[in-house]
Amino acid sequence: MTQTFKVLSLVLTYPTREIREAAGDMKAVLADEALLGRREIRVVNDLIDELAGGDLYDMQERYVLLFDRTRTLSLHLFEHVHGESRDRGQAMVDLMAMYEEHGLKIDARELPDFLPLFLEFLSTMPLDDARDVLRQPLHIIVAIGKRLAKRQSAYAGVFRALEDIAKREPEADEVAALMAQPEHDPNDLEDLDRIWEEEAVTFGGGDDGGCGPDRLRTRIRAANRPALDPTEGA
């Protein structure tokens, strides 16, 4: 079990008092495992300190603005490549099946492509296997990190840390395709409502091939069209 993934999962979760109280333990894990480089440990620790020392309500408001109301920063991985199409639903089913194959049961209310949950899953695997699975959505992770860095957000350090763990750079054209997606002002409520007028994700249906890491790779890289085009009816 690689506890560093659990730490990164926690800092990408909606800020709570419990997470703030675990700040010292999280920093100790990063130091003891030393999975990250010194620079990456420092920037993640800076975020942990910020979450622990800042006003909780300010931290929560910032989190919602970034990850819940800014769609290009969504922590739901498949949203970036499938939008709300049927392909996303089948990809969810495949990913959930992979979790179950490895003994991880998730709450029915949780979407399996939520990045903190994905990192929790990686923490249960041998490191080499976890790296292989992490590399599959790495282009999405890197693109989100770049967008956060443009905003000078402390959260960008978590995404740089994940890239460091992966020990491999994603395909540049895949990152560029995601970065080309239009940004929208999360404070423009009318624009936000228009973008989020979509169909619900449908689970099941589609083809009934096998699941597992190779199937996950196929699903993540399947969509060649822009997933976030607001003109496409969901």
Any overview of this molecule?
By secondary structure, the chain is mostly helical. The chain has one domain. 59% of the residues lie in helices and 0% in strands. The protein contains 14 helices and no strands.
Number of discrete domains: 1
- How big a fraction of the residues is strand? under 5%
Structural shape: globular
Quaternary structure: single chain
Helix content class: 55-70%
**Secondary-structure class:** mainly alpha
Q: Detail the poorly predicted runs.
A: 198-215, 217-234
> How large is the count of helical segments?
14
List the helices and strands and how they pair.
Blueprint: H1 3-11, H2 17-21, H3 23-33, H4 38-53, H5 56-68, H6 79-82, H7 86-101, H8 115-123, H9 127-134, H10 138-150, H11 156-166, H12 172-179, H13 189-195, H14 213-220
Helix pairs in contact: 1-8, 3-4, 4-11, 7-14, 10-11, 10-12
Feature tags:
14 helices; mainly alpha; 234 residues
Give me a quick take on this structure.
The chain is an all-alpha fold. Helix content is 59%, strand content 0%.
